[in-house]
Amino acid sequence: MAAVGLMLSCTRPLAPLLRPGVPKMSPSQLHTTAGCASKDYYEVLVLGGGTGGISMSARMKRKVGAGNVAVVEPHEKHYYQPLWTLVGAGAKQLAASSRATANVIPPGIKWIQCRVQKLDPDKNCVYLENNQKISYKYLIIALGLQLRYEKIKGLPEGFNYPKIGSNYSVHTVEKTWKALQDFKEGNAIFTFPNTPVKCAGAPQKIMYLSEAYWRKTGKRSKANIIFNTSLGVIFGVEKYADSLLEIIKSRNITVNYRHNLVEVRADKQEAVFENLDKPGATEVYQYGMLHVTPPMGPPDVLLDSPVSDAAGWVDVDKETLQHKKYPNVFGIGDCTNLPTSKTAAAIAGQSGVLDKTISSIMKGKTPTKKYDGYTSCPLVTSYNRAILAEFDYNAQPLETFPIDQSKERLTSFYMKANMMPFLYWHGLLKGFWGGPAPIRKLLHLGLK
Predict the structure, then answer these.
(1) Taking Cα atoms as reference points, which of 173, 203, 180, 3 lies closest to residue 80?
(2) Residues sharing a CB contact under 8 Å with residue 354, sequence separation 6 or more, in sequence order
(3) Residues contacting 15, CB < 8 A, separation 6+
């Protein structure tokens, strides 16, 4: 979210419930649960209680009323995952990234605490794992993506050994901080997989933070820091890539392009990489610390689904987020095939556009508001500096502030560490934040 860019019973009105002498309700009582009788039809059905799902449910509540909206989400907790970069580096506590799902779903909206089993857009319904069928008038798919650690031989069981962590999972992010603290000497390896990933800058953010930590603790001279990435470039936007390459050079970090992690031998502290430019060729690296960015892909329920493209991503128009085949189906966030980075900042920009799109469809009009691919990646380079990357579908900078955001700045770091989490919980999830475009226009005096 750049700069400033960055689960069923009836619910009664809150005011009478909060009168003196009347017991207060817990957050979960504000929503209904799957164990109670639920309706089998909603005007708007939202699949997923992550960033995209919660932000859109808030917007739809204002549009059609809380009783006409339901969110399907199995998990009890909601996480602000961008904070995990700092959790893995010991700069934030994991608890700070968590809220109860009951606290983030807008009051009055139905929370169906269950998993989606099948989507049937031809009949305007979905089937849940509890064998319930829910019909809808409009469907918003916000199912995120799936971490596939099992695609790497030796994982996830390898996380039971020391010296290995991953900032991408709530179960392994604190292992990163442990591995970072326990590092003594040798290769410190950071990986980037050969799949789409969420927050493509995160695999190297933890590398820069690790380097800074070891400098601070006097271990830097004993660390051979290596970034093995499946990509052919350090970052997809040239302006920010140039700045990152300068940092990499000044900090004596080794980058091996087109190297993909295929196996972890945790008992031997060995990582095996395939050379993507030499099919079949592999290299074995000994490590003193290993940070794994797992392969990722669409959720299983989307594979071979009518709403998905050949790769399993929800097939939507890249400008309106409306499904290409089903006009009453929409997608947002990581589960879609939008050709932009999968970040919370991108979801912010998408949510504002999707709100307008659905409004137009509801009125029988053609959507006119267009999503330009805006996304942001605050590239944390130390414990008090960050590069604020913002860009569009064309991999061109789309910066909020009238300064060169490719430079490391203290202000950019504090936006990442403090302002963006606040904006996430109190703006984006409540449906009030659609990205920094209006602020950008103001600060650039109306110029693009």
Answers:
(1) 173
(2) 56, 140, 320, 321, 330, 332, 371
(3) none
For 337, the domain range is: 14-145+298-362
What CATH number is associated with residue 56? 3.50.50.60
What is the count of structural domains for the chain? Answer: 2
305 in the same domain as 287: no
Provide the strand spans (E) within 3-156.
41-47, 69-72, 77-79, 98-100, 110-112, 116-120, 125-128, 133-141, 146-147
Please tell me what DSSP assigns to residue 353.
H
Query: What are the C-alpha distances in Å from 49 to residues 18, 76, 120, 281?
Result: 27, 10, 20, 41
Closest listed residue to residue 256, CA positions, set 279, 236, 286, 276: 276
* pLDDT per position as a tens digit, 303-353: 999 999 999 999 999 999 999 999 999 999 999 999 999 999 999 999 999
pLDDT for res 444:
84
Is residue 349 domain-shared with residue 303, that is, in the same domain?
Answer: yes
What band does 445 get if pLDDT is binned at 50, 70 and 90? confident
Q: Check whether 11 has a pLDDT greater than 80.
A: no
- Report if residue 418 sits inside a domain: no
Give Dmax (Cα) for the chain: 73
Q: What is the mean pLDDT of residues 144-151?
A: 98
With respect to residue 181, please indicate whether it lies within any of the assigned structural domains: yes
Amino acid 392: pLDDT: 97
Q: For residue 409, which amino acid is it?
A: R
- DSSP secondary structure letter of residue 82: G
Residue range 119-135: average pLDDT?
A: 96
For residues 241 and 183, membership in a common domain is answered with yes
Beta strands in 142-258 (DSSP E): 146-147, 164-165, 186-192, 223-229, 254-256
pTM value surpassing 0.70: yes
Residue that terminates a domain, selected from 340, 362, 384: 362
Same domain as 152, residue 117? no
User: Do 126 and 63 share a domain, yes or no?
Assistant: yes
Same-domain status, 44 and 138: yes
163 shares its domain with 84: no
Nearest Cα residue to 200 out of 326, 35, 357, 375: 375
Question: For the residues 20-37, what does the mean pLDDT come to?
Answer: 41
Q: What is the pLDDT of residue 38?
A: 61
Q: How far apart are CA 271 and CA 283, in angstroms?
A: 8
Is residue 381 situated within a structural domain?
no
Beta-bridged to residue 442, according to DSSP, are none
Q: Catalytic residue positions?
A: 199, 377
Q: Which two tokens stand for residue 98?
A: 């968590």
